[in-house]
Write a structure and sequence with these properties.
- The protein is α/β, with parallel strands linked by helices.
- The chain has one domain: Metallo-beta-lactamase, Chain A.
- Helix content is 23%, strand content 25%.
- The chain has 7 helices and 14 strands.
- The strands form 3 sheets. A 7-stranded mixed beta sheet has the order 3-4-5-6-7-8-9, with helices on one face. It has a 5-stranded mixed beta sheet with strand order 10-11-12-13-14, with no helix packed on it. The protein has a two-stranded antiparallel ribbon with strand order 1-2.
- It is globular.
């Protein structure tokens, strides 16, 4: 994949090299909208960011690229919410395309970052120790979580309770979130899934920085198959077919995201890719 390097500097003077594809979807603007109940989409065209609102403040999941901080803020305010009311920050994985703006948003809002404990090291060093992106050095501004989470831990704010699901493989601390939202008419059990995209350019056994990667992938694929939910979303809009399910200006329609078939098919594709890689000796 052709990469270009974007240079920036974080507060501690570490140089940040953000590898980015030339695909415009990662930074392209996308109109924010209400998904279901108090859950909103505030991300870019392809990098999914989610706002969960409560009477005690808000939760933001993912931030997109470092350059997306203003987009996310504008999207939140366009929905009528206050940016500075963000109290909790979460991410689905410690990669620059999902938390590139995390350090900035954390500083601007004073919100507490909570993260899977297995991604704590990568968060602290800007991804420099990540088995895949670490070859580029520091790819996002280092950020320290205020709370480290384990599988099954609860995140509570106001009347919302999220459960963090440890789904490692894509990163050591990749995770998903499951929770219930209400819209006055119905309750919806929502899964924000972090799919374990299978690395293809080398064998699992050659990844010295992540010796448990094959076992973690196997665990996550099995764990994700047993989840029960009404609606599902993902870390990338393209993964859950956002642009087929919602067009800017569409009316509120949670049912558009009730797609068990799409979830099962995507998970099956990843299982097949994993099984083939193992079968062929991890080539």
């Amino acid at each position: 994949m052709l990469l270009m390097i974007v240079y920036a500097f974080c507060g501690n003077a570490q140089q940040v090299k953000e590898p980015a594809t030339n695909s415009p979807e990662w930074s392209k603007n996308y109109a924010p909208f209400r998904i279901a109940g108090n859950l909103y989409y505030v991300g870019t065209y392809d990098l999914a960011c989610y706002l969960i609102t409560t009477n005690k403040g808000h939760i933001l999941i993912n931030t997109g690229l470092a350059s997306s901080a203003k987009q996310v803020k504008n999207n939140i305010e366009a929905l009528g919410f206050k940016y500075n009311d963000i109290k909790i920050l979460l991410t689905t994985q410690a990669h620059f395309d999902h938390l590139g703006a995390m350090a900035v948003i954390k500083k601007e809002t004073g919100a507490t970052l909570m993260a899977d404990e297995k991604d704590a090291e990568a968060l602290a060093n800007g991804g420099a120790t990540d088995y895949e992106m670490g070859k580029y050095g520091v790819t996002f501004a280092p950020v320290k979580p205020g709370r480290l989470l384990k599988d099954g831990d609860s995140i509570a704010l106001g009347d919302i309770h999220l459960e963090m699901l440890h789904h490692p493989g894509h990163t050591k601390g990749s995770c998903s979130y499951i929770f219930t939202v209400h819209d006055g008419q119905q309750n919806y059990r929502v899964l924000i899934a972090n799919f374990p995209t299978i690395i293809t350019d080398r064998s699992f056994h050659s990844i010295a920085a992540y010796p448990a990667i094959e076992e973690d992938y196997a665990y996550t694929l099995k764990a994700m198959k047993g989840l029960q939910f009404d609606l599902w979303l993902a870390s990338h809009a393209s993964q859950f077919g956002l642009h087929e399910k919602h067009k800017p200006g569409d009316k509120y329609n949670p049912e558009a995201f009730r797609d068990q078939k799409g979830y099962d098919e995507l998970l099956d594709d990843m299982q097949q890719a994993f099984d083939e890689k193992v079968k062929t000796g991890n080539k």
